[in-house]
What does this fold into?
Amino acid sequence: MTYDLAVVGGTLVSGSGRKRADILVSGGRVVEVAAGAAAGADANRVVDASGKLVLPGMVDVHVHTREPGYTHKEDLVTCTRAAAAGGVTTIFGMPNLDPPTVTGTYLEEVLDLYRAKSIVDYNHNPVPAHGETEAMAESGVAAFKVYMVVDTGRTYPHPAGTGIHDHGHLLQMFEDVAATGRVFMVHPHDQALMDHVEQGYWKKGDRSPEAYAKTLAAYDGIIWDTATATLLRMAKATGCRLHIVHVQTIEGIEMIRRAKAEGVQVTAEVNHWALFLGTWDDVLELGPYCLSYWVPDHHRAAVWDAINDGTIDIVSSDHAPHTRAEKDVGWEDMWAAHTGTPGIQHQVPLLLDAAHHGKLTIERVVEVMAEVPARSFDIGSKGFLEPGFDADLMIVDPAKEWTIANDGVLSKIGWTPYDGREVVGAVERTFLRGIEIYGDGTVKGEPGFGRHVKPSLTRGMP
Ligand code: DOR
Ligand code: ZN
It folds into this structure.
């Protein structure tokens, strides 16, 4: 038999450990994984991974692709080029688009765009529109998404229909999503509390980035924690599978830990900026360029503990690109700026760097960025480098020292909040279904190569 690809001599890392092994690939799938498996085997392409680590491709379940509607920020080609360079082989897109993904028709239109343009495999999370959730689930969505946010003084990033503040409406969505068996992904936030706290700053004429950062983190995270409590209670009531994004407070983590112990079906996500950005020094120096959030240091420490003890299940990019102009207005009025932070290209190197500095193991990196997201969202073909799985992988040099810089950014916006950050650990090559989509510093994948990965019917909550 002639294999399509042999990756030889590398050290494979999974959540359960590492081993020296070759990988043989045929028809886009892993066929064999064993030390010496490539010796004597016939392969059309042999990639030498000796001295390197081989990791499954990242399954990034939280990506703001911006297409359709906001293609001046990003589009599906630029977003997935950045993904490929960052070791990301599957993305889940978010519904805050124009038109926002709030109907089955809009969902089909978005899926058509991915089909034509995405370089990596994909899924898309629509809002669970009442009466349409079953049909949406049947068209292959892995999860639904809403925000508990309304934007004050701006219409983005939460366009009409994507932000839900009415708890009765939210409970109905939990019921509807529960009936589909899919996961409900929610951004926790209490807008009434935000409105109250921000008034205090506005009355003083303070609309600075510091005021915005302090508003969101007021009373040690009350805006996030009260929302988290509501979500967990609704998940318990309805049996709906819940995925909470932006978990970044001590109380939030404790509530999730308790809920899991009680058997509530919940997974928790943290985003790269809560780990690597968003210190008070970052707020002062980068202002709008590092906001959404300031994560006070005691919360960040709890987040790292929760990643390591398994309370936080998933790290995602929440890649949220905005132009410099959309950010720059924030120096004067942060409430007029677009919030959100890009990062799809750099989260894996940042996690490798964190592993280098002993914050977590590379085995845990593999779990939080590939294995657990694939399993939690029932993507049965992804996340593991084992026979039968898609041959989605990255070859990583864990010792490579380099500096993240704006001029290497593939995202359309051309900037990263990590500009100048020195890291140890780099993605050298990325393969999707056995085809190299990034290598030698170049994106090689073609638009349209990405496929819609549909969830299997088994429920895979960890
Ligand atoms: O700050 C944010 N930006 N929060 C969100 O929920 C969405 C994101 C975006 O799309 O820019
Ligand atoms: Zn987001």
